[in-house]
Amino acid sequence: MHEIHAIANDTLNALETFLDSEANENGLDFHGTHGFLTAITIGPRGGLDETALSALFEDQAPTKDAAFSAQLLEQLHAWQKSIHAALYHGVRLTLPCELIVDHEDSNELNDWCVGFMEGIFLDEDAWYAEHEEDIADMTLPMVVLSELIEDEDLAQIRHDQRIINEMAKQIPELITSLYLLFHAPANA
Length: 188
What we know:
Structural class: mainly alpha
CATH class: Mainly Alpha
Number of domains: 1
Shape: globular
Largest sheet: none
Distance between the termini: 20 Å
CATH superfamily: YgfB uncharacterised protein family PF03695
Order of helices and strands: HHHHHHHHH
Number of strands: 0
Number of helices: 9
CATH topology: Four Helix Bundle (Hemerythrin (Met), subunit A)
């Protein structure tokens, strides 16, 4: 079950082409989808189920073409499994974007963080049911960089380029820490 699930570059390219196209009217873009898949993988949900798929595409079918939708969902499951396998085997997750932030313009990392936060919002109560303070600390970079939550303190952080760049660089390590918090045996 936990063998390495490598996802083919052709599959990633096909996903990126669709997710970043105008045909994807209801879903997150490529980077946002990776963030969403990462959040549901490391969080209490643990995997891509029907509820998560529905949320990913705002309760709509990904496309009107049923065969293409089925293929797309299969590819998304493979992508999520590859994220899980990397984390399970202790491989530092590589994001599909650079860990660089420009507080003047939104970029791919901001999109990734939006997707990650959407994954948290799907199970927000379960995310914070235990270890609330630790999880709040570990998710702070994603909260700040997603810009989804309006808060005066967060706005001040967003205007400090040095701090947000440091936060961005911490994200892969924080993903691993969050995964372990939710999925490592308590007495290991």
